[in-house]
C-alpha cells in the first residue's frame, strides 16, 4: 500500500469511525436511566398507593420528565428548516498552482463531508417548497481542520453590508403585530424594504425566478456567494468564487405545483433526498471555482467584492476541480442537522477572506449565533461538529465540556509544560493570514463601485428564456399583489422600471398600479446563457413516473416499459385506486404502492397510462384519475399513453392532447421499445413549455 492509498483509507472512514463512538442502537437492549441503572417499570410513576400522589423520590420520573422539558433548543433565526446528508469530496487534480489547501491536492483522498440544505425565511415547521432562497452549507472534515463552505442556491445576496442583515430578516419574517405570513415574502414589510433598499434589485430577480422553487435539493446549484481568496505555497493570492454544479442539472417546480405540494407533502425536498440515498442513488455535485488574479481586481465594470454581484461565467469561466458525493443519510436529525454549527470563518491554510463587507459581518455573527443556540462555547465538541484531526489549545471548561483536559497548565506561554501546546509555524501547517495591505480613514460608507444596483439585474433578465420571464412576471404579480399598501406597490413598480420598462409594465398590470410613463430601464444588452435553466443538463436519471393502472392493465407492455425505465435510471410507481396487488390482462401481478387518494401528479415528474380495456374503463370512472392526468398535462410534464390508455388521456386532457409536445402515444403493441425510448427522452426534458394547455 503506497502512502496515498493509506491516506485515502484513513480519510474516507475517519469521520464515520469517530461518530461510531457516539452512536446508540436500542434494539435488543434493556432500558436504563441516564446513569446506567436498569429500569423495571416505565409506564407508571411511583405513588403512595395505587390512587395516591406521586412521590418526589421517583428519580426515574424526574429524569425522564426533566429531559423531555429541555429537549428543544432555539431554532435558527434564519435557515431554521433544514435537512442533511453525509458523503465525501474528491478533487480531480492537484490545485497546487492555486492553493495550498491539502484537501484540494490529492485525487485519491476522499474527504468526509456533511451538507445541510435549508430554506431561509420559514420556521422549522414550514413547508419545503415555499418560494425562498435555499441554504447549501458544506462542512469538509479535512486533515487540517474543518472547512465550512456556507452558501446558498443563488450566487448573490439582498444586501451589501452585514449591518443591514437584521433589518432584512425583520422585513421578510412574519409581521410582528400578527405573526403572518409564515415562510413567505408576499407581504408589505418585505416589499417596503425592497423598494427602499435598491441594492436588493438583483437578488429579487433571482428570488422571483424558478431558482427559488427547486425541483429537488439534488437538482439545484450551490454558491459560496462571497469572494474569497486562494493562496498557494508561494504566497500568491487569487480572488475566488465557489460553485456547486449538480450532476443531474438545475430543475424547478412550477408555482402551482409548489403550492400544492406544500399541502400534499410539506416534506417533499427532504423526503426526495432521503429516499434517493436510501435506494442507492448517490447525490453528486461538481465543485467549480472562478478565479481572478489580484492585478485584475479593477478591470471589470462591477466590483468583485460586492455580494450583490456575480461574475458572469462568460467573462470568468468556472473551472471544475472536484466532485462531492452524498451517500449516507443521517442517523438522527437533531443530533446532526439541528446541532450542526457552520461558520464561514472555519477555513484551512490556502483559503482566506476578502473585504466583502457582508462576509466580514458573517465572520462575527455565526459564532455568536451558535453560542446562544447550542448553550455555550463547546459546540465544536458535539460529534457532528468535531474535526477528524486532533485539536489542542488552552480553552478549558464551559457548558457541555466533553474533553477531559489533563495537566495543571491552561495558559500560554508557560514553562511548566514546555510551552505546550505550542503554535505551529507556517511550514508546520500553521494558518497565516494573507498579508493584504490595508489603509484608510475610519468611515461609514460604501465604495462608489458598489452603487450600481441595476446592471446585473438587467443582465439576469436578458438571460432568461421567454418562459422563465413569464414565470418571473407571475411571481412578482403574486408577491406584490399580496401587498396591501398601494404606495409600496407603486414604489416596487418604479424600482423595477429601472431594471426593465416592459417588466415594470407587466408587474403594474397585475398589481393595480399605473404603469410607468417612461422606460428608465438599464441599457445593458449583455446576456449570460449560464444563468438560464434552459441550458442545463437533461437526464432521466432518478426521475419519478406515476403509472396509472387498475386490474386488467396490459401487463406485457407495462413489464417492458418498466424494464426500460429501470435501465434509464427512472423510478416508476404503480398508482391505483387501492393499495396492494393488481392483476394484468395476462394474469401477471404488480403491486400498487400508492393510491389516487394518497398522492397527486405534482409529486411525480411524468405520467404513464398503459392500455388494457378493463383497467382503463375502471380509471375512467375515477375523477381523481382524470384530475391526475389533466394536472400533469397542465404542468407541461411528459405523459405517455398506449393502447386504450390514449382514450383516457384524451378524456382527461382534451382531444388535442395527443399531438402536443412531450405527449407520447402508441397504438402499436409491438412497438414498445420505440415508445419507451421516446417517452424516456421526453421525461429527460423535464418540461415541455411549447405545449398548448
From TrEMBL:
Cofactor(s) required for function per UniProt: heme
Report whether Oxidoreductase shows up as a keyword of the record: yes
InterPro entries, per the entry: Catalase, Catalase_AS, Catalase_clade2, Catalase_clade2_helical, Catalase_core, Catalase_haem_BS, Catalase_immune_responsive, Catalase_large_C
Per its record, the protein catalyses: 2 H2O2 = O2 + 2 H2O
Which EC number applies?
A: 1.11.1.6
**One function term, GO molecular function aspect:** heme binding
Q: Does the keyword Metal-binding apply?
A: yes
One of the record's GO cellular component terms: cytosol
* Residues that, per the record, bind heme: 76, 116, 165, 362, 366, 373
Domain named Catalase core is located at: 32-420
Which part of the chain holds the cross-link 3'-histidyl-3-tyrosine (His-Tyr)? Answer: 343-366
Q: Where is the composition biased (Basic and acidic residues)?
A: 8-28
What CDD domains does this protein's entry cite?
Answer: catalase_clade_2, GATase1_catalase
User: Which residues does the entry assign to the active site, renumbered to this chain?
Assistant: 79, 152
Superkingdom classification of source: Bacteria
UniProt region (Disordered), positions on chain:
1-44
The record's Pfam families line, in alphabetical order, gives: Catalase, Catalase-rel, Catalase_C
Q: Name the UniProt key words of this record, in alphabetical order.
A: Heme, Hydrogen peroxide, Iron, Metal-binding, Oxidoreductase, Peroxidase
The protein's enzyme class = oxidoreductase
| Gene Ontology terms describing biological process | hydrogen peroxide catabolic process; response to oxidative stress
Q: Which family does it belong to?
A: Belongs to the catalase family. HPII subfamily.
The protein's role, per its UniProt record:
Decomposes hydrogen peroxide into water and oxygen; serves to protect cells from the toxic effects of hydrogen peroxide.
Q: What is this protein called?
A: Catalase
Amino acid at each position: 500500500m503506497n502512502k496515498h492509498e493509506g491516506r485515502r483509507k484513513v480519510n474516507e472512514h475517519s469521520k464515520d469511525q469517530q461518530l461510531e463512538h457516539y452512536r446508540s442502537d436500542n434494539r435488543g437492549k434493556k432500558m436504563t436511566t441516564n446513569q446506567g441503572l436498569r429500569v423495571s417499570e416505565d409506564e407508571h410513576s411511583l405513588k403512595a398507593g395505587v390512587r395516591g400522589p406521586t412521590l418526589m423520590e421517583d428519580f426515574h420520573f424526574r429524569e425522564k420528565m426533566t429531559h423531555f422539558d429541555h429537549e428543544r433548543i432555539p431554532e435558527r433565526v434564519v435557515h431554521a428548516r433544514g435537512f442533511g446528508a453525509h458523503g465525501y469530496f474528491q478533487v480531480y487534480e492537484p490545485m497546487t498552482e492555486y492553493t495550498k489547501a491539502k484537501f484540494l491536492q490529492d485525487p485519491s483522498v476522499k474527504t468526509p463531508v456533511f451538507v445541510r440544505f435549508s430554506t431561509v425565511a420559514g420556521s422549522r415547521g414550514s413547508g419545503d417548497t415555499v418560494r425562498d432562497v435555499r441554504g447549501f452549507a458544506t462542512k469538509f472534515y479535512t486533515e487540517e481542520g474543518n472547512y465550512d463552505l456556507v452558501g446558498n442556491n443563488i450566487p448573490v445576496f439582498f444586501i451589501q453590508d452585514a449591518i443591514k442583515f437584521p433589518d432584512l430578516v425583520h422585513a421578510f419574517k412574519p409581521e410582528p403585530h400578527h405573526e403572518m405570513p409564515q415562510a413567505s415574502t408576499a407581504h408589505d414589510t418585505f416589499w417596503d424594504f425592497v423598494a427602499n433598499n435598491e441594492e436588493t434589485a438583483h437578488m429579487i430577480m433571482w428570488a422571483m425566478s424558478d431558482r427559488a422553487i427547486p425541483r429537488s435539493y439534488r437538482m439545484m446549484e450551490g454558491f459560496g456567494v462571497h469572494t474569497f481568496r486562494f493562496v498557494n505555497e508561494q504566497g500568491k493570492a487569487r480572488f475566488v468564487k465557489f460553485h456547486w454544479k449538480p450532476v443531474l442539472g438545475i430543475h424547478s417546480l412550477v408555482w402551482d405545483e409548489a403550492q400544492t405540494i406544500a399541502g400534499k407533502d410539506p416534506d417533499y425536498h427532504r423526503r426526495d433526498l432521503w429516499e434517493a440515498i436510501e435506494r442507492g442513488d448517490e447525490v453528486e455535485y461538481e465543485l467549480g471555482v472562478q478565479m481572478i488574479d489580484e492585478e485584475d481586481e479593477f478591470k471589470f465594470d462591477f466590483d468583485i467584492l460586492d455580494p450583490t454581484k456575480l461574475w458572469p461565467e462568460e467573462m470568468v469561466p468556472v473551472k471544475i476541480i472536484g466532485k462531492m458525493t452524498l451517500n449516507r443519510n443521517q442517523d438522527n436529525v437533531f443530533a446532526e442537522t439541528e446541532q450542526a454549527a457552520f461558520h464561514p470563518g472555519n477555513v484551512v491554510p490556502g483559503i482566506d477572506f476578502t473585504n466583502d463587507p457582508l462576509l466580514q459581518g458573517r465572520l462575527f455573527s455565526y459564532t455568536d449565533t451558535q453560542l446562544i443556540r447550542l448553550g455555550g462555547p463547546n459546540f465544536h465538541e458535539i460529534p457532528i461538529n468535531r474535526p477528524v484531526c486532533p485539536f489542542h489549545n488552552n480553552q478549558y471548561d464551559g457548558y457541555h465540556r466533553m474533553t477531559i483536559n489533563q495537566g495543571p497548565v491552561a495558559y500560554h506561554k508557560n514553562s511548566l509544560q514546555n510551552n505546550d501546546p505550542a503554535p505551529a509555524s507556517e511550514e508546520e501547517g500553521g494558518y497565516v493570514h494573507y498579508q493584504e495591505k490595508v489603509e484608510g480613514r475610519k468611515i461609514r460608507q460604501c465604495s462608489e463601485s458598489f452603487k450600481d444596483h441595476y446592471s446585473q439585474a438587467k443582465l439576469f433578465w436578458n438571460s432568461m428564456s421567454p418562459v422563465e420571464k413569464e414565470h418571473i412576471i407571475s411571481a412578482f404579480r403574486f408577491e406584490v399583489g399580496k401587498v396591501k399598501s398601494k404606495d409600496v406597490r407603486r414604489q416596487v413598480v418604479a424600482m423595477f422600471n429601472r431594471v426593465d420598462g416592459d417588466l415594470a409594465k407587466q408587474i403594474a398590470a397585475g398589481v393595480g398600479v399605473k404603469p410607468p410613463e417612461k422606460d428608465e430601464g438599464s441599457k445593458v444588452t449583455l446576456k449570460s446563457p449560464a444563468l438560464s435553466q434552459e441550458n442545463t443538463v437533461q437526464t432521466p436519471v432518478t426521475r419519478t413516473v406515476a403509472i396509472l393502472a387498475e386490474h386488467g392493465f396490459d401487463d406485457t407492455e407495462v413489464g417492458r416499459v418498466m424494464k426500460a425505465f429501470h435501465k434509464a435510471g427512472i423510478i416508476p410507481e404503480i398508482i391505483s385506486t387501492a393499495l396492494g396487488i393488481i392483476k394484468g390482462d395476462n394474469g401477471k401481478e404488480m403491486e400498487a404502492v400508492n393510491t389516487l387518494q394518497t398522492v397527486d401528479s405534482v409529486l411525480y415528474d411524468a405520467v404513464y397510462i398503459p392500455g388494457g380495456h378493463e383497467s382503463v374503463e375502471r380509471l375512467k370512472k375515477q375523477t381523481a384519475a382524470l384530475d391526475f392526468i389533466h394536472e400533469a398535462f397542465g404542468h407541461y410534464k411528459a405523459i405517455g399513453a398506449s393502447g386504450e390508455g390514449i382514450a383516457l388521456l384524451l378524456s382527461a386532457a382534451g382531444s388535442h392532447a395527443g399531438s402536443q409536445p412531450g405527449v407520447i402515444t402508441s397504438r402499436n403493441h409491438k412497438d414498445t421499445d420505440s415508445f419507451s425510448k421516446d417517452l424516456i427522452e421526453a421525461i429527460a426534458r423535464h418540461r415541455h413549455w411549447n405545449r398548448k394547455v
